[in-house]
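Recall the central idea of this unit: under ordinary conditions, the amino acid sequence of a chain determines the structure it adopts. In this exercise we apply that idea directly, starting from the sequence alone.
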Amino acid sequence: MDKLSTIDLDYFGHFRYYFDDSILPDMLFTPFRLFIILVIGIATIGWQQRSFPAVLFAQFSQTSQRDLASGARYRISENRSFATDLTRAALDRAGRVVRYDASYKVITFPNGDVPSNTGCGTDEIIRSYREVGVDLQELVFLDMVESFGAYPRVKGKTKPDTNIDHRQVANLQAFFKRNGVTLSPSRVEADYAPGDIITCTLPKGQPHIAMLVPAPGSGRPWIIHNMGMGPRLEDRLFDFTITGHYRYHPRG
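Accordingly, the structure predicted from this sequence is:
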């Protein structure tokens, strides 16, 4: 048996060494073997800190999401409309690295945004609409100025806030109801179309929002949303309790 019989690379970068114990002292002073031991040590630290697997997963996820989005683009209608442009903008978001952060941030107005590598579910909707020339930050603010009472009441709040109002699911629901088409939530696939917006309730009761896009293959529409792992394209239309179904297309 060779002194160093094999080096295996396991899933997510685990290294395994099989040594002949009788020769271990000799090999410790071989420069090449010292280098190998150093590499293993660095990899082990990376594993313990979850940095190495996280990088591999992120890269794999990005590639997978981009491939899915590419397949979905082939199923977008060739007729240019606001809905098709919005759908393309949403698909362009798939696979981007975005750290989930729904916290309050002071941002510019209009066309303000939190840092592009952070955000939450509503930020994906806002960014997709902004790509087609619609600034929900400004529109929600102006609508709240005009009809503040039509929006959900928040204790202690007496006026609109351009930093956060458009980033809250309940406020987007109110805006879409007042300015778009409200459709009845259903379990019928044919009722949903790319470019539609749905709101839903997650298992722990959190409000959530997503945009519908074509499936990469055949079948019902998929959704693109951020539930904590960045913008993802997934077949999860009916996974959660749908609380709202909206179609907001300011242009035809």
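The CA atoms of residues 98 and 117 lie 4 Å apart.
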